[in-house]
Amino acid sequence: MPEIGETRVHASTPSIELLSTVDSGRAADETAELLFARYATDLPIICELFGVEQPLPTPVQVVLTAMPEGMPAAHQGTTIWCDVAAGAASSPRLALYSCHLLATQLVHVVAASAGPHWSARTAHGEALSRAIAGSLYPRWRNAWACADDWLSGDRRNAVAVAGEPNDLEAVGCASLFLDYLHHELDLDWRTITRAGGATLAVTYRRASGALNEPFDDFAALLTDLMPAGAGPAVAEPTPAPVAPPALTTDAPLSTSLSDVLAHRRWWLVDTPVRHLRVEDVFVSAVYDQIVATFRERMARGDFSRSLAGYDASAAAVTPANAGGFGVFLTREWHDLIATLLGVQATGDVIATLHHHAPGSASGTIHNDLNPGWFPQHDDDSSVCVHDPAVSNYRTGSSSTGISTVERTRGISLLYYLDTPPAIIGGDTCLYRSAQQPVDQPDVRVPPKNNSLVAFECTPFSYHTFISNLGVERNCLVMWLHRDRAATTARWGNESIVGWT
Amino acid sequence: MDVVNERRVCLFTGASGQLGRAFCAAYRDQYDIVAVYRRERPWFPAQDARLVDPLDPGRAVQENAHPIHALRADLLVPGEALRVVESTLARHGRIDLLVNAAVSTLWAPMLGSLDLANSVQRQFALAVDIPLRLATLIAQLHWQADAGNNRVHNRNVVNVSSVAALRVYPGSGQSVYAASKAAMNHLTAHMAVEFERVGVRVNATAANSFPQLVGVARAAEAIRELDASTRTGELLVVDGEQNEWMRLDEPDR
To answer: pLDDT tens digit string along B190-249?
Structure first.
C-alpha cells in the first residue's frame, strides 16, 4: 500500500472518514466535496446489490492521494486509497474520476462483508468491481478495460476457475462474461451479484437457473462477434460496437482496410452538416501503433505552434514520418472517405497532428472551405501528400522549383487519439449557422480515442473546437481536396475563404 | 382499419437516456417512434442518420430497417413542446403513446451548498410541467377531437417515475428528485381522471435504479406492458422478483 505522509481531514462521520494527503493540494480539496456526496449515493446502491445492510460494521476511511503508476486505487480492510486527478484543481468535474475509483473499492469492501464469493483476491471479484463502478460512472467504464488481453490470447476458460486479480487475461474474460450475463442474458446486476459463487460458472447457474456449463455458448458468441484477426459484425446499431480484436504484433501491420478496420458499420448523418461518425475505427494493434508514433513525435519535439489563430501545436504527417499513421495516407483510405461523403476528390491530402494543451481556447466557427496548393501529379493510384519541405500549402511557392496547382479543401477529417478519458470538453462542434453561440452547437463530437468525424467542406460546414479542460486533447486532422474549378462552379469564387 | 396490426405512433421524450435507448432497441420494429433528445442523439437509424458499410457503401444494411424519427428539442425552452407535438402530428397524423421519460436529476445534500435548491425548478419542470404540457397539447391538437378513436386505438400516456417517490433512502441526496417524482405520481392520478373524458388512459412506471438493480430492458418492457393494458391511474413498479401494480388514487392499497 502507498506510503502516506501528513494528511488533512475533509469529513468525519460515523460512516466515513475522508482524508487527503497534504501534497495532493487543491485537486484533493475540489475532489473531496463531490466524492463525499457521491459516497452517500453510491454506497446504498452497492450495499443493495450485495444485500448488505447499512451502516457497514466498520467505518470506511478514504484517503485521496497521488497514487503510484498502475495502481490508481487500493484498499486494505475498510481503508481505501484513491488517486486524485491533477486537473481537478481547475475542473471540479474531474473529481468524478476519483469517485469512480472509490466505487471500485467500495464494491470490494462491501463484497467482503457479504461473503467470500466476490473476493478482491479473485479475477471475477476484480471484474465485478469494474463492472459496477462502470455502470455508476459510464464515462470511465473502459478506463481499466482488459478484454483485449483475453481476446488476443488463447481465449482460455476463465469462467470455470477462479483466476487471480493480476491475471489480466482472467480479468478480461471475467469482464466479458459479466457483460454477457448482463447484456446478453438480461440479468440485472443485483441478480448477478447475489448469485455469486466460487466461480463465474456457479454464479451463472445460480443467477439463471440453468444447469449447463456456460463457457462454450459464451465463447461461441464471442467468436461469432469478434473472430480473432477480423473485425466483428455489429449486433446492435450504436456508435460504439463490441471491442475489436488485436492483430498479432509479430507480423508487419497491413494497411489494407479490410484488415485494419475494426468493424464495418459507420454512421452517416445528414444534419446539421453531412458527416461521418465512427467509434473504434481501427483494430487495437493498429491504434497502438498510431499512438506509439504520436508519442515518439511528441518526445522528439516535432510539434510547434505554427497554426496562426489556433490554440494548438502541430506537426505535419508525411510519407517519410507517417509511421503508424500510414493507413491515412493510402489511396484506399482516400477513396473510401471521398466515396462515403460523395466528393469528387483529387488525391491531394494534407495531414497534421494537433496537440491541445489543457485549457486550450475554443476556436471560432468556420467552414474550412480554403484553398491549398499541391505539386502537380498524374498518378491516380496513390495520393499526393503535402510536404512543407517541398512547397507552401497556402501560397504554392516552392524552394525546389516544382510546379504546383491550387485545389480547395473538399473533406475535413478528425481522428482522435491518445487523449485521457477524463477529458472534459475538447469536442468538435457542428453548427447550422455561423451566428450560433460557440457553446450552443447542434452536434458535439467528443474526442473519444480511436474515433473519427469527417464532413464535406462547403460554405455551410460550420464547425469549431471547444476548449478542453483538465487534460490534453490530441488528434490527426487531414483534408482531402477538390478541383478549384469544381468548387467555383458549385458555389462561386467568393465562397472560397482565402488565407489571412 | 386493422387496429391490432397497425404500427403505433410513440412520442418518447428523454430518448437518449438508458431507458429511451432500450425502448428504441427493443421496439422500433413495432412502433413508429419519435425520439426527442436534447444533446446527444440516440444512435439508431433515423430520418437523418444511417449505417453504411465503408467497404461496400452501395450495399443495403439490414440494421437500417425500422428507423426512428430523431427530434432534437430542449423542452424547457418556450415553444419547444408545441413544436414537438406539431412535428409529430404533421409526420404521423396521430399519437398513440406519449412516454414522458425526460428527466433532470441532481442528487445532493441540502446542507453546505445551494446546488440542490437551485435545481428544484428544473427537476420539477421535467417531472410535472413538461409531462402535463405535452399531454395537454396533444389533447388540444388531436385527442380532444377524436375521443372515440382514442379508445379504439387504446391511446395512453406513460409517465416515467421512480421508486424514489415511494420510499425514502436516507443520505442519498434524492430529496428533490423524490419529491418531483412523487409529484409526477399525483399528477398521473389526476390526469387519469381528467383524460378519461377523451378516452385516453394515463399511468406511470417506477423502476428501481437501472441497470444496477433492475435490468433496463425490463424497465422498457414495463412501458410496453402499460401501453398494451387497459388500466388507467396506476403505477407499475419494476423492482424485485416481479413487477407490482399500485393504484395511484389509493396508494396504500
So the answer is: 999 999 999 999 999 999 887 778 889 999 999 999 999 999 999 999 988 889 999 998
Q: Is A48 on the interface with B (CB under 8 A)?
A: yes
Q: Using CB atoms and an 8 Å cut-off, which of residues 79-138 of chain B contact chain A?
A: 107-109, 112
SS3 assignment, position A477 = strand
Contacts of B72 in chain A (CB under 8 A): 442
State the DSSP string of A119-187: -TTSHHHHHHHHHHHHHH-GGGTTTT--HHHHHTTT----SSS---TT-HHHHHHHHHHHHIIIIIS--
| Residue located via cell numbers 447550422 | A432
Report CA-CA distances (Å) from A369 to A98, A372, A462, A495, B180: 43, 10, 10, 7, 49
Per-residue pLDDT reduced to its tens digit, B60-85: 999 999 999 999 999 999 999 999 99
Write the DSSP symbol of residue B230. -
This complex has an ipTM of 0.91
| Nearest by Cα to A148 from A178, A127, A168 | A168
Say which of A257, A271, A340 has its CB closest to residue B48. Answer: A271
CB-based contact, B60 to chain A, within 8 Å: no
Q: Is A66 on the interface with B (CB under 8 A)?
A: no
Centre a 10 Å sphere on the Cβ of residue A185 and count the other Cβ atoms it contains.
17
As given in the structure block, the three cell numbers for residue B141 are 391538437
